[in-house]
Task: structure prediction
Amino acid sequence: MDIRQESLAKHYEWAGKIEVTARTHAKSRKELSLAYTPGVAEPCVVIQKNPEEVWKLTRRWNTVAVITDGTAVLGLGDIGPEAGMPVMEGKCLLFKEFAGIDAIPLCIRSKDPDEIVNTVRLLCGSFGGVNLEDISAPRCFEIERRLRECCDIPVFHDDQHGTAIIVSAAMLNACRVVKKDISEISVVINGAGAAGLSIGKMLRRIGVTDLTYVDKNGVLYEGREDMNPAQAAEVVGKGLAASPGSACGQIVFTAEEAEEMVKSGKMKKVVLVRLETSPEDIVGMQVSQGILTVRGGMTSHAAVVARGMGTCCVSGCGNDNEVKIDEEAKTFEINGHKFVEGDWISIDGSTGNIYDGIIPTVDASIAGEFGRIMGWADKYRTLKVRTNADTPRDAAKAVELGAEGIGLCRTEHMFFEADRIAAFREMICSDTVEEREEALEKILPYQQGDFEKLYETLEGKPVTIRFLDPPLHEFVPTEEADIEALAAAKHKSVEDIKAIIASLHEFNPMMGHRGCRLAVTYPEIAKMQTAAVIRAAINVQKKHPDWKIVPEIMIPLVGDVKEFKFVKKIVVEVADAEIKAAGIDLEYEVGTMIEIPRAALTADEIAAEADFFCFGTNDLTQMTFGFSRDDAGKFLNAYYDTKIFENDPFAKLDQNGVGKLMQMTISLSKPVNPKLHCGICGEHGGDPSSVEFCNDIGLDYVSCSPFRVPIARLSAAQAAIKKHNA
Result:
C-alpha cells in the first residue's frame, strides 16, 4: 500500500483530524454554574464594558480561522470548498502540533471576493488571527489586502507569506554558503501564481535585483497580453483615491520632464510623481496619464486639478506608507520598493492602489447594460449633471459619459501653456495699466481660441467660465533662467524682478489677493477675459446658427455685493460693446461662486444682481471649518478614529454646517430673483449623498469631474425616486 492509499484509509479511520476538547468540566452542578449558567453572565458583562477583555476571558487569543474557497487546493486546482476540507484540517493539525494553537477550518461556498471578505469580516471577532489557504490568484491578493484593511486581527495568506518567508530564508542561507551577496545572484521563479509572485516580492525586498518569472505560457515580460493583473504588477502601497480612473506609465519627477518626454516621443506614457504639485505644473499634468503625490489630501492641488482634467490621481501616499522621494536624484521609494526615472508604475485612482509594473488600462465608456441603466436613470432624475472641465478633451469625454454642460471651467489653467505664461508674467511685472493691457492683449487670442473649442465641443450646451481665481504669485517664475528671461522682456534688472516676486508673497494666499479681488485691483484682466468669452461665443454662434450659445461668466470669491457689482459692470460694458460691434443678438449671464460664508449670509443682496449662483464647496467647506484643504489630511485621521468626524468633509458634504449655508442661500435668494439658477461645482458634485442633498434643497444641477458624471447621474435618479416615494 503506497502513501496515498494508506492516507485515504487513515482518513476514513480518523473521520476528521481535529476535534474540540474542553478545558474544564461540567460534571457537577457547580462546574456547570461556573462554566455556563448563571456564572457565565459575569465575563459577558465585563467584555461588554471593555471588549479588550475578550482576549483574557475567552480562547480567542489562541484561536485561528483557516479559510479557503477551494479554488487552488494543492496541485488539484479548483475542486470546491468541501474537497478542500482535508487540507484545512491538516493545517489546523499543524497549528496545534507545532505551535499549540487552536485552529478551526472554514470552507466558504463562494468564489466572489466581496462575499468572502464580508463573511470573514463578520466572523473575525471570534478569532485571534486569519490564515487564508488555497485561494486562487489573482483573487487571493485582493481578498488578503481587503481583509487586512477591515479586520482588527492579523491576516496571513499561507501561499503568499509563508512560502515567501521560507524561500527567502533558503536563499539567504544559500548565499552565505557560497559567499555571495544576494544582489549578485540571478533568480528564476517557475510559477507565477500567488506563491511565486509573493516570493518574488519578498526576494526583491531582501536585495535580489535580477529576477525572472515563468508561467505555463513562458516568461513574463512588459506587454505580454495574457498576463493577469497580479502578474502584470504588484501592489506596493496605497494612497488616497483622489481622482477616479487608472493610469500606467513611466515615472517622471517634474512637469517639465513629463512634457519633454511625451512631446519628444522618448516616453509614450508617463506618470508624474511629485512631493506635491503646484499651479505651474499644469502642462506636465495635462500630458501625464496619472499623477502620484506624496503629500496632499482629497482636495489638494493635484487632486482638484486632476479631477477637473479627468486624469487619474493618487495623492498623499506618504500618509500611511514608508516613502522617500528625491526629485533631484530622480528616485522614489515606497515600502521598500525602489523606483527610478523611466520605471513603469500603475495607479488606481478609484482605490488608491499603487502597483509596481504595467497593468493594462481601457478607456471608460457607457455601453451595453451600463448604458441601459444610465438611460433609466436619466428618465427619473430632475437634477441636471454638468462637468468640471478646462480642455476640449476633458469636455468631450464628459459629454460622452452623459454631461449636459460645463459647470466650471478654470481659466487659470489655460495661462500656464508655454505660449502664454511669458505674457502673463509680463503683465504681473508691469508698472502701468497700459503695460498690463499690452501684455494681456497677447493672451487674448489664445483665451478666445480655448473658449471657441469648448463651445464647439459642447454643441450649444451651457458653459460656465470662471474668471481668474488664484493669487498672482502662483504664476511667477522660480527658475533663474526664467527670471532672467522675464527681466529682459520687461527691461528690468533681475533684482527688480525678484523684488516683485517677493512682494507677491502672502502668509495665507488662499484668503489673500485672489478671485474677484484681482479684478478689483486689475480691471484689465476681467476686460480681457470678457472679450475672449464673448468673441468666442459670437464666432461659434455664427458658425452654428442652430445652436443657442449663452455664455455664463462666473466671478469667483465674492463676499460682498459691492464687489460683484464692480466686476459685473466691467463685464457688461465690455460684453455689450463686443456684441454691438459684431451686429449679433447674443445673450449672456453673469453670476458668482458662493464660496465665502458671508456670500451665503448676504445671498439676497447678491441675488438681486446675479443671474446664477454656483456653490464652490471646496472653498466653502474650507472657510466654514477653518481647515486648510491642503493640510487637513495630516490630522483628519485622528478625527475619524475618535469619531469626531465620520467622513472627510471635503469628500462628503457637511450637511449640518456647510449644508445650512447652502439652504440659507437658496431661501434668501429665490424670493429676490425667481429666475436665478443654482448649481454646485465643488468636489461634492460627484458624491452620492451630497448629490441627494443638492436635489433635496432644489439645486438645478451638480457639476463634477468627467469620470464621476455617471455616478452623479445615477445618484440624481435615486434621489428623485426617494423624494417622490417619501
The first strand starts at residue 63 and ends at 68. The CA atoms of residues 273 and 292 lie 5 Å apart. The chain is about 45% helix and 15% strand.
